[in-house]
Automatic annotation (TrEMBL):
GO biological process, one term: aromatic amino acid family biosynthetic process
Similarity annotation: Belongs to the type-II 3-dehydroquinase family.
Protein name in UniProt: 3-dehydroquinate dehydratase
Residues binding substrate, per UniProt: N77, H83, D90, L104, S105, R114
Top EC class of this enzyme: lyase
PANTHER family: CATABOLIC 3-DEHYDROQUINASE
Catalytic activity: 3-dehydroquinate = 3-dehydroshikimate + H2O
Subunit relationships: Homododecamer.
Active site, UniProt feature: Y26 (proton acceptor), H103 (proton donor)
EC numbers: 4.2.1.10
Matches recorded under SUPFAM superfamilies: Type II 3-dehydroquinate dehydratase (SSF52304)
Keywords of this entry: Amino-acid biosynthesis, Aromatic amino acid biosynthesis, Lyase
A GO term, aspect molecular function: 3-dehydroquinate dehydratase activity
Amino acid sequence: MSTHNRVEVLHGVNLDQLGRRDPAHYGSLTFEQLQYRIEEFGRELGLSLRFFQTNHEGEFVEHLHEIRDTADGIVLNPGAWTHYSYAIRDALELTELPAVEVHLSDVQAREAFRRHSVITDICVATVSGRGVDGYRDALNRLSEELQG
Ligand code: DQA
């Protein structure tokens, strides 16, 4: 197993409301069930995962400040912040860690404002529209990056 296996899985604003959000976009799993599935994906890949969710942008930024030395990589779904938070982009860049962006829904196929992400170009990959399985894809991609 790689020693570079510490992955932070970060969920942004409103992701804690999964299970109550539009199932056509986000499926029917609750946030707890989603985390459980991600934990399983991580185990399959030999990754050590830590989870964080907040609805407060500043807390998300501060968490990014703190993980620089305790994580090897990041999987993040910042929710709506994806589309406009330069503060989160700057903090993500500051970590200097490889990151994979994930969206449960197909952001390219929805409203125009969701088509733009302010973090895509600083992430090693983006996975969108694959639902829960998108997190497996993202962890896989990150795992390759950490071993490479
Ligand atoms: C989301 C897509 C965003 O546009 C939206 O604001 C979310 C969730 C997704 O996982 O599909 O909250 O990031």
